[in-house]
Amino acid sequence: MEIRKYTHGSLFSGIGGFDLGAKMSGIPTLWNCEYEEHKRKILKRHFPNSYQYSDVCTLSNPPYVDIISGGFPCQDISIGNNSNKNLWRNGEIGIKGERSGLWREFARIIHEVRPCYVIIENSPLLANRGFEKVLYDLTQIGYDCEWQCLQATQFSYPHRRERIFVIAYPSKIRRIYHSQIFMPVEEILSKWTSRQNIIPMPIKRFNSESNYERVRMDDGFSTGLDIRRIEDCGNAVIPEIGMYLFECIKEFDKAYSNVIEQGLLNNESLKIAA
């Protein structure tokens, strides 16, 4: 059987965590979409051949790709936004919020493109603050999905950084093939070695008393630029986790294709026998 070549497009692309994960998995990113200009410049520098969109709300019918990925805004969902605690209790924000509510645009574009697979990332609190909406919308446009919480520590990083990851695919796949799409992390990790040398860091480097000289070397740039860099990295998907998810999709898709091919062969055999 021929090795399938996949294509990728990313929404809410940030500085390209999913795009880099796709590249590490041998999958080209045909297009990305990011609202903030300085992040688009970073994307253009590292992915010059990817077509760039700037606003998910005006993006309509982008070219077909096999996989769409995106971490839609978590500000109205995440526990890090302490100012919204009372609103959470009243159910007034979460995925209904102005920023996290951009999920509706994500769902719209999935419906327009109809990719084979979709990767969704958000705060684990999405499970209590709007996940039913995500599941409902995916069902309405003909997709089934599986989900899992993953931590940075599972990929040899010295911090927790837990996130929920969803992989969706057309419902017809589940009617035929019943294996899970998420593979054990160690099975994927055994196939490659992280390009990052992990250096243990005391947690006090990242507490409220940390200063920029202790977080990174003084390179002459203003602290304002450092704040933006740290924020960009903090919001980005860890590329190795992205690669893991793409590898899960490739293995799942290969197994599913084998089932379909074998089923067709069996049908042909039955016709001949009859």
TrEMBL record:
Signal peptide: none annotated. The active site is at C74. It is an enzyme of class 2 (transferase). It holds the Pfam family DNA_methylase. Its EC number is 2.1.1.37. The keyword Protease does not apply. It catalyses: a 2'-deoxycytidine in DNA + S-adenosyl-L-methionine = a 5-methyl-2'-deoxycytidine in DNA + S-adenosyl-L-homocysteine + H(+). Belongs to the class I-like SAM-binding methyltransferase superfamily. C5-methyltransferase family. This is Cytosine-specific methyltransferase. It comes from Odoribacter laneus YIT 12061. The lineage of its organism: Bacteria, Pseudomonadati, Bacteroidota, Bacteroidia, Bacteroidales.
